[in-house]
Design a protein that fits this description.
Layout lengths: L1 E6 L3 H12 L4 E5 L13 E2 L1 H7 L5 E5 L1 E5 L5 E5 L5 E4 L1 H14 L3 E4 L2 E8 L2 E8 L2 E12 L6 H5 L7 E11 L7 E5 L10 E7 L2 E8 L5 H7 L4 H6 L4 E12 L6 E2 L2 E3 L15 H21 L4 H4 L1 H25 L3 H11 L2 H10 L5 H11 L8 H4 L4
Parallel strand pairs: 1-2, 1-11, 2-8, 5-13, 11-18
Antiparallel strand pairs: 3-7, 4-7, 5-6, 9-10, 10-11, 12-15, 12-16, 13-14, 14-15, 17-18
Length: about 400
């Protein structure tokens, strides 16, 4: 019987397996894809602290120190920070690098292996697995669900959570007329209803574009319009699609994120940031918290729900508070119409407000900028007084 079986070789799953195997636990890391990280389902934008947290770096395609915000009624704003705020990376390369660290530490890395379900047995769990050769079973003391927003591990473990799931669609393109070191953001009901679109320079005349939205809206139709109308078309006049990217983004932390012999990390635990949709950094935090709790549980020789329960407290302490504030900001955003968005963008251009954003803007901790903006211009509270009071 294994000590731990980790399902999903994304950043949080591989980090969990890496921690467990490094500590001497017999661990297997499985993923349904044949090549870890493929197909890519992410825009590949992270903060510099993500590499700091990982403890090593990977190749950087571009450094971002600014952003252009395009909104309804031709509203527009250009931000320029004095330091690098984000890094454009090769996301599949990052995924493989963490999975390889897990393997180098002793984890058995099994690509092309699909988790089908599990049942409780004496002393642990019996998981049903399928690969190209057929179906078989793996027995494990601990099952780690790092298998994304529609986590089958969570479903089979009976872990239910109320969450909002967005669908995202995008592409790598040639002929993208972006601004060097600047991310382009598009908001408005005609461009990306209920969320936003993005354009990220990845090299000379190249970029990564996309948007996310919620049902009944479908992102593909809005994506097609990016080339024909609105602010994005100004940057994509002669662009050519090179590679398509799609995925799902879950908002809402699973609570609980554990049960007997099962613990969830990453998107399976709802670690995506409601303000940006990114989840790599927060997913890594959940992986380390999961390992800490699992390690103590192994030492106690008890992996029941009560022993794993401190995991929820660690998530709340380390990243849950920020995710909660981020969701309040999202609800405030959803309450706005296009006229209000246009007015807000104009107000964001006020010198003292713009300066506050350029100084405190942070993809991982959006509440810091929200607080600074409200402090610089209290009139913002009129747009969503109840939802934004926590940031005053």
């Amino acid at each position: 019987m294994l000590d731990a079986l980790v399902v999903g070789a994304g950043p949080s799953g591989s980090r969990t397996a890496w921690n467990l195997s490094k500590a001497g636990y017999e661990t297997a890391l499985i993923d349904r894809v044949e090549v870890i990280g493929e197909p890519c389902q992410c825009a590949g934008l992270i903060t510099p602290r993500t590499f700091d947290y990982l403890g090593y770096e990977r190749p950087i395609l571009q450094e971002m120190d600014g952003a252009r915000l395009w909104g309804p009624k031709d509203s527009y704003l250009d931000f320029q920070a004095s330091e690098t705020k984000a890094l454009v990376i090769d996301r599949p390369d990052l995924d493989r690098s963490i999975a390889n660290r897990a393997a180098d530490s002793g984890s058995q890395l099994l690509s092309g292996h699909t988790y089908l379900g599990h049942e409780k047995i004496d002393g642990g769990i019996k998981a049903k697995i399928k690969n190209n050769e057929g179906k078989f079973e793996i027995k494990t003391k601990l099952l780690v669900g790092s298998d994304g927003p529609l986590s089958r591990v969570a479903k089979n473990a009976g872990i239910r959570s109320s969450r909002e799931v967005l669908t995202a669609f995008g592409a790598d393109v040639e002929g993208y007329q972006g601004k060097e070191s600047h991310v382009d953001l598009f908001v408005g009901s005609n461009l990306a209803p209920r969320f936003f679109g993005w354009g990220i320079p990845t090299g000379p005349n190249e970029g990564r574009i996309g948007l996310a939205t919620t049902l009944p809206h479908r992102p593909m139709s809005f994506f097609r319009n990016y080339f024909k109308k609105g602010a994005p078309s100004k940057l994509l006049g002669g662009a050519k699609v090179v590679n398509l990217i799609s995925g799902m983004i879950p908002f809402g932390t699973a609570n609980p994120s554990y049960t007997d012999n099962v613990i969830l990390t990453g998107d399976a635990a709802g670690m995506a940031k409601p303000t940006s949709g990114g989840g790599i950094y927060s997913g890594l935090i959940s992986a380390d918290a999961a390992f800490e709790i699992a390690n103590k549980a192994f030492q106690k020789e008890s992996l029941d729900s009560q022993t794993l329960s401190p995991y929820q407290g660690l998530l709340k302490q380390r990243i849950g508070g920020e995710l909660s504030k981020g969701y309040s900001l999202r609800k405030a955003f959803l309450s706005l119409n296009d006229d209000q968005l246009s007015e807000i963008i104009t107000m964001l251009g006020e010198p003292k407000v713009k300066k506050a954003i350029e100084k405190t803007g942070d993809l991982d901790y959006a509440s810091l900028a929200a607080f600074s903006v409200l402090k610089a211009q209290p009139k913002f509270i009129k747009f969503a007084p109840l939802l934004l009071k926590p940031f005053i």
